[in-house]
Amino acid sequence: MLKIIISTMTAVAVLAMSCLPAAASHSIDVRQAKQAHAIKRGRIAGKITWREGLHLRREQRRIKRLERAYRRSGDRLTARERRVLHRMLDEARHNIRVQKRDGQRRWTYFRRFGR
């Protein structure tokens, strides 16, 4: 009976550990989606100018390209790679926040549509 309990607990621990990298990459994708949405909301509200939006979206593409390169090099992200991506996402979030609050606004009667 004890062997069954130990083997079951071991199987559950192994299964839980195998899900950790997937959850970490999921959080990276969620953060990227939230940041893209924040940029879009800032553009619609006029808090982010057209040029600022270009720079912020370029930064998001750079992060996405690096993530793809990391994933091509191996099937999972290493702890170091996740740390680098999260640091870049932290900096991108800071840049979005700064651009939204810098006081530069788009003229509302000259709306720019599209990206």
Instruction: Please bin the fraction of helical residues.
Output: over 70%
Number of separate strands = 0
The helix tally amounts to: 3
Write down the overall mean pLDDT: 83
Runs in which pLDDT lies below 50 for 5 or more consecutive residues are: none
Termini Cα gap: 63 Å
Structural class: mainly alpha
What is the subunit arrangement here? single chain
Q: Rg to the nearest angstrom?
A: 20 Å
Q: What portion of the residues fall into strands of 2 or more residues?
A: under 5%
- Given the C-alpha coordinates, what overall shape results? elongated
Q: SSE string, helix = H, strand = E?
A: HHH
**Biggest sheet features:** none
Written description of the protein model:
The protein has a domain at 48-102. It has helices spanning 2-45, 50-73, 79-101. It is 79% helix and 0% strand. It is mainly α and 115 residues long. The longest helix is centred in the first third of the chain and has 44 residues, at 2-45. The protein is elongated, with a radius of gyration of 20 Å.
What attributes characterize this protein structure?
single chain; 115 residues; mainly alpha; 79% helix
Brief overview, please?
This protein is mainly α. The chain has a domain at 48-102.
Give the SSE map.
Blueprint: H1 2-45, H2 50-73, H3 79-101
Helix pairs in contact: 1-2, 1-3, 2-3
